[in-house]
Write a structure and sequence with these properties.
It holds the Pfam family HTH_1. GO terms for molecular function: DNA-binding transcription factor activity; transcription cis-regulatory region binding. Belongs to the LysR transcriptional regulatory family. With about 300 residues, this protein is an alpha/beta fold. The chain is elongated, with a radius of gyration of 28 Å. It has a five-stranded mixed β-sheet with strand order 4-3-5-12-6. A five-stranded mixed β-sheet has the order 9-8-10-7-11, with helices on both faces. The relative contact order is 0.13. It has twelve helices and twelve strands.
């Protein structure tokens, strides 16, 4: 393998261009040297990698299979070099964070403001999308750090718990009063389940999946509901009396304390969820990531 590494590089560049002449120009070696290297690699692997013609070279089936693997290997090497360059840059660093709009506003923003004030030389970029998309960006090395709900199963990344959050249902008192008057029922719980309008996150949201699982476990089925894409809109819709919204309790604490919103129960309390930061294990000790994570209090 070691002695063939340069051969793999020549093979890779030739496959990218589909032309020995272009590969020779990029690698600064002669065309005969390119052809000789490819023949050596084919002899070593005992396969034919290219079909040659007057127009250039085309990968064979075996060649294409090898190319896919070699491309991933060289991509990994490029990423490693980029990581080293970032780590040893002269006082210049970048921190790319992936987070949902909701967690960014209610959890991340205060700490982010403090971090930027203390480390103005660090370039911070925020990518707002769902937790699933955040995980994908992290795996593809498009972000350095993600704030997400704790994934199920064994984690291949470094995960630092931050806090637990509680999902709950809220609405205005006037909505409840008008609902009872309209339906004329003495049983508020049954009236809620059969006639209330519930507002839930859309079904692609990890919060929605957690809620659906909790309701199903307790045999609760909601007859009428609206899907809303963001937590902010769920909160605002509930505040104007549009219906009963499924929100995160910590994010409406002021509204609950002032009486603008009130909590309702449909059965046993929904289990709490954990949120935290996630990053690739080899990068958890990089200065910008380590410094940022140290700003957050230990989870208890």
């Amino acid at each position: 393998m070691n002695q063939n590494l340069s051969l793999y590089h020549i093979f890779y560049v030739t496959a990218l261009h589909g032309n020995i002449s272009q590969a020779a120009k990029e690698l600064y070696i002669s065309q005969p040297a390119i052809s000789k290297s490819i023949r050596r690699l084919e002899d070593a692997l005992q396969v034919t990698l290219f079909t040659r013609s007057s127009r250039g070279v085309t990968l064979t089936e075996d060649g294409n299979l090898l190319f896919e693997q070699v491309r991933e290997a060289f991509h990994a090497l490029d990423l490693a070099e980029q990581t080293l360059q970032r780590r040893h840059s002269l006082g210049i660093a970048q921190l790319r964070i992936g987070v949902s709009t909701t967690l960014c506003r209610y959890i991340l923003l205060p700490y982010l403001q403090k971090f930027v004030q203390n480390y103005p030389h660090v370039k911070v970029t925020i990518h707002c999308q769902s937790s699933y998309q955040t995980m994908a960006l992290l795996e593809n090395h498009q972000i350095d750090l993600g704030l997400i709900g704790r994934p199920a199963g064994k984690l291949s990344c470094h995960y630092q718990p931050l806090q637990r959050i509680q999902d709950t249902f809220v609405c205005t008192r006037s909505y409840l009063e008008n609902l009872q008057i309209r339906e004329g029922s003495d049983s508020l719980t049954e009236t809620l389940k059969t006639n209330a309008t519930f507002m839930l996150p859309d079904d692609a949201n990890i919060t929605r999946q957690h809620i659906d699982a909790a309701l199903k476990e307790h045999g609760i089925e909601l007859n009428t509901f609206l899907e809303v894409s963001t937590m902010d809109m769920l909160i605002e819709f509930s505040k104007i009396g549009l219906g009963i919204a499924c929100v995160i309790r910590e994010f409406v604490q002021n509204e609950l304390e002032t009486g603008l919103l009130t909590e309702i129960t449909l059965g046993p309390e929904i289990p709490t969820r954990e949120i935290g930061f996630i990053c690739r294990k080899p990068e958890q000790d990089l200065p910008p990531i380590r410094t940022f994570l140290q700003m957050f209090p230990p989870f208890s």
